[in-house]
Amino acid sequence: MREANAADDFQERRLTALAKRPRDKTGAWRKRWHSKAPAAILLALGAVLLSLAIPRTIAAWSRLQALPAFEKISAGKPSTDDELTAAAAGLTRAAAAAPSGDILVELGTIELWQALASGRDGPQRADLLARSEQHLKEALLANPTQTFGWLKLAEVRIAQEASGRDVAAALMHSVDVAPNMR
Q: Closest Cα to residue 105, out of 85, 113, 179, 177?
C-alpha cells in the first residue's frame, strides 16, 4: 500500500510539473527577457552614473593639492613658491577633468598670487597675469554671477596696470552681482 501511495504521489508531482511548464517557446522567451530587462536597465544606469562620477572625483582629489596654499594665504602667512606651483598643477588637472567656474577662479587666483610673489621678472610675471586673466574670464563666462571672480579679475587688471575703466568695470560687475556682500 505504501508503494502504491508513493507511486501516486510521484505521478501527481510529475503531472503538476508538466502543467506548469510553458507550452510555447515564444512565451518562455518573453518571460526570460522580461526578467532580464530591469537588470540591464539598472546596469546601464549604473554605468552612466559611474561615468559622471569619475571625472568629478578626479577633480576633487586634484583640487586638494591647492588646499595648503589657500590655508596659508587665508591665515595671513606667505605661501611658498613650491606650494603655489603644486596648487596650480593640481587645479589645472582638476579643470581638465571636470571644468567648472569655481575651479577656474581658484586657478586664476593662484596664478595671480604667483605673479605677485617676489622674485618674478617682467616676462614671467606678465605671462602669469595673462593666464590668470584668461582663466578668470573663462570662469565668468561659465558662471557670470561669481562675485569673487569679478573681484579677482579687477585685482589682475590692477596688477597689469590696466586702465581705470577696465578695473572699475570688473568691480562694478562684482557689486552688481552681489550688492549686499561685504
A: 113
- CA–CA gap between residue 99 and residue 55 (Å, rounded): 9
The C-alpha cell 522580461 sits at: 34
Tell me the HSE value of 28 on the side-chain side, using a 13 A CA sphere: 6
Find the length of the chain: 182
* Cα separations in angstroms, 73 against 45, 117, 164: 42, 12, 27
The pLDDT value recorded for residue 137 is 94
Phi, psi angle pair for 51, to nearest 5°: -70, -25
Look up residue 95 and give its amino acid. Answer: A
Distance CA 12, CA 53 (A): 56
Among the residues of 64-100, which ranges form H helices? 67-74, 81-97
* Consecutive 10-residue averages of pLDDT for the chain (182 residues): 62 64 56 71 89 88 88 85 91 90 92 84 88 94 91 93 91 84 62
Q: Comparing C-alpha atoms, which of 146, 45, 145, 61 is closest to residue 98? A: 61
pTM of this prediction? 0.71
